[in-house]
Amino acid sequence: MRILQVSAELFPLLKTGGLADVAGALPIALMAAGQDARVLLPGFPAILAGVRDQAPVAEFTAPWGQERFGMRAGRIAIDGAAPILAYVIDAPALYDRPGNPYEDTTREPYGDNHRRFALLGWAAAQLAQGLDPAWQPEVVHAHDWHAGLAPAYLHFAQRAGAPRVGSVFTVHNLAYQGLSAPWNFADLGLPAAAFHMNGLEYHGQVSFMKGGLCFADRLTTVSPTYAREIQTPEQGFGLDGLLRLRGDVLTGILNAVDDQVWNPATDAALVQGYHTPEGRHMAGKARCKAVLQHQLGLAERPEAPLFILVSRLTEQKGLHLVLGGLDTLLAEGGQLALLGSGEAWLEEAFRERAAAAPRSVSVTVGYNETLAHQFFGGGDVTLVPSLFEPCGLTQMYGLKYGSLPLVRRVGGLADTVVDCTLEDMASGDATGFVFDRFDAANYGRALRRAFALYQRAPDWRRVRGNAMRRPADWATAAEQYIAVYRQALESAGT
Ligand code: ADP
């Protein structure tokens, strides 16, 4: 099958969160499964700089009419895998800007985001309609609101007689919907009928997320539990009714871990690699911990459980629970190391705690891929106490690196971590610490459970072994996506 993945980010070229990891790993897994997968990306500077052997493919006119943009094609070289063939939209006026892909340097969304990302969906539809005569996708797979208009453009083009192409839309996080003012609709090049309750209209605004949810042949999200949760008013962000309506075409497919990037046995960011089974191959982890403690200015105490947090600093991630429970964590003899960036008040609150106890609390504000690997390598416990979590990747990296996840039972966290109950320890299923209610008492109990297990070294090693052995390969996820693509092809345009 010829499959076009449409995404705003792709690891290793550009990453602000888990979406990039998925966008980088899935095409490789699809190719390994014999599929003809390519990607389409906006021409952000980091992407243009990272795509090799670029050649112009064609020009096309923007949906708002006047402007013309170039489409380029090239290769993204990936260590240990076949290169990914990539289309890149050459539009420096829209994409060559300071800040992150979505916001300016003051963290305000760019005022013309509707144009910047409409162009992404539009370009996908152009490719589906033959912009590159040498390659035409049979299925377009759009990721998150940034690519949400691709299914809408395909839907209306097919109604106007264009060839049938299957469309799949994946929700990576329903909290970000790409809303904009209603007058922006005129720029999108869609028929008036699209600005409707059963289309892009959301309480008077334009919703790119609804473009994907209403018009894609098939919908997926990144874990089975999240697929159920988003159909409820509590977690549906106002879209639960629509998601229930489309529930029969919605599938939850759990993300996986890219073994080429995240593998403690081969990870070049670690001072010493390590792997299961058990004790004698795990010396590297102790060394990673000692080096990390030293590097962060923490007391170099091998016996102190080191809790790590690698996260965007937003309300979603439940960080006030971590702040609230920090006194207990320190009183029990633990250490906390945080790597993250985001909301200023959270950065400040954690910085204050680090200043007050620099030998026990370390806070690194910023984004640092290498350091993130070293955190998972050196950590004992990975904290992910999220309010909601579509899939979550950090707990999966924590599992694989033997830094046991402490998570709330929500979304993909519920699907990937098994609590250390006596029965699950006996059966060999336990892999971490899971709490239910989003409050200090429940979080505190999970913390105490982590300390209690840490005191029992043989049990800790056993659970760590379970965690590290948990399968999380992209081949399994790719098979599930391929099944969804087939369904999309069968139902395309019907
Ligand atoms: P989300 O997509 O909501 O941010 P995920 O857990 O799905 O959460 O993915 C987060 C990804 O971003 C992981 O790969 C994690 O390692 C990475 N990450 C988050 N914050 C940082 C940071 N400050 N430095 C390096 N990597 C980070």
Helical residues, percent: 25-40%
Count of discrete domains: 2
The percent range for strand residues is 15-25%
The small-molecule ligands in this entry are:
adenosine-5'-diphosphate
Strand elements, count: 18
Distance between the termini: 19 Å
CATH architecture label name of the largest domain: 3-Layer(aba) Sandwich
What is the arithmetic mean of pLDDT?
96
Shape: globular
Question: Mind summarizing the main beta sheet?
Answer: 9 strands, mixed
Ranges where pLDDT stays below 50 over 5 or more residues in a row are: none
Q: What is the CATH superfamily of the largest domain?
A: Glycogen Phosphorylase B
Say what the CATH topology of the largest domain is. Answer: Rossmann fold
Strand order of the largest sheet: 3-4-5-2-1-6-7-11-12
Short description:
The protein is an alpha/beta fold and 494 residues long. The protein has 19 helices and 18 strands. The radius of gyration is 23 Å and the shape is globular.
Please tell me about this protein's structure.
This protein is of the alpha/beta class. The chain folds into two domains: 2-256 and 474-491, Glycogen Phosphorylase B (Rossmann fold, 3-Layer(aba) Sandwich); 279-469, Rossmann fold (3-Layer(aba) Sandwich), CATH 3.40.50. 38% of the residues lie in helices and 19% in strands. The protein contains 19 helices and 18 strands. The chain has helices spanning 18-32, 45-50, 92-95, 113-128, 149-159, 208-215, 224-229, 240-245, 283-296, 319-324, 326-331, 344-356, 369-378, 394-400, 411-416, 422-427, 440-455, 457-469, 474-491; strands spanning 2-6, 36-42, 52-61, 68-76, 84-90, 139-143, 166-171, 179-180, 201-202, 205-207, 218-221, 250-252, 306-313, 335-342, 361-365, 381-384, 404-408, 433-435. A nine-stranded mixed β-sheet has the order 3-4-5-2-1-6-7-11-12, sandwiched between helices. It has a six-stranded parallel β-sheet with strand order 15-14-13-16-17-18, with helices on both faces. β1 (2-6), α1 (18-32) and β2 (36-42) form a beta-alpha-beta unit. α4 packs across α5, α5 packs across α6 (208-215) and α9 crosses α13 (369-378). The protein is globular. The mean pLDDT is 96. Residues 17-18, 21, 310-312, 339-341, 367-369, 372, 391-394 line the site of adenosine-5'-diphosphate. Adenosine-5'-diphosphate binds at residues 17-18, 21, 310-312, 339-341, 367-369, 372, 391-394.
